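Subject: Sanity check before I submit

Could someone independently write out the structure tokens for this chain? I want to compare against mine line by line before I put it in a report. The sequence has 267 residues.
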Amino acid sequence: MKAQLDHLVVDVHDRLDEGAAKWRALGFHVTPRGRHSLGSANHLMIFGTDYLELLGWEAGAATRPDLGGFPVGLNGLVFRDWDHASTYAEMKRNGVPVLEPRSFIRPVGLEDGSIAGDAAFTTTRLEGRTGFDGRTYFCQHDTPELVWRDEWRQHPNGVLEVSRVVIAAADPAKPMAVLNAMFGTVQGNVLPLAHAKVEAVTPASLGTALPEAGGRGDYLALIGFRVKSLAATEAVLTANGVAFTKAGGTLATAPAAAMNVALEFHE
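---
Independent answer below. Compare away.
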């Protein structure tokens, strides 16, 4: 099966407003709030072929059990799916612990308050905490035109796409064994993707400020982004008062700036 990143999920619990404000300060165009038929709510940051999701629940709403069990931070690794029935069957054949696909919708609100339509999805999830302390699943988009809107792809910080996802793991081979069972294309401790890669490293070798583990063992720790111009990214971060470090053609922000997620920007 082809391995392609669909999106990454930052669980923000009931702190959706805070999460959206922090990511806007980082220079991202954050979409209006969406509300799933499953009871959760989100904001998105749309890129070329992938996106980032801030996922949680509104104040006073019921907590989705599969979200509340994780701390605030990067907890979801999602791959693109084109045929959920075939994907489910293939994962079963490969011995990957997978759950039955489920479908849901989300009305897509626009900045003017109108509704563009109902975005429809089918997700096929691995059993919780398979490979690392987080959630891994596939997402089939039945209405991709409602998600990848051109006006939402334009970010003040110049981000074009996700380039790197890093799992901090005591034994990097452990999460990569699961990914290899899923796709069969892992090279060492790296899963190559079309425009990005997923890699596992030991926390000590990550070389950046680590997110708070919040009781997790192995966990998703860092997102790398490819940008149009690093100088433009630096200008936006400076103007918005976001602290960063700069070394070797890479800008890095601390986890506190991004809801407990380490970020890197490069051209």
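---
OP: Matches mine. For the report I'm noting this point. The mean pLDDT is 96.
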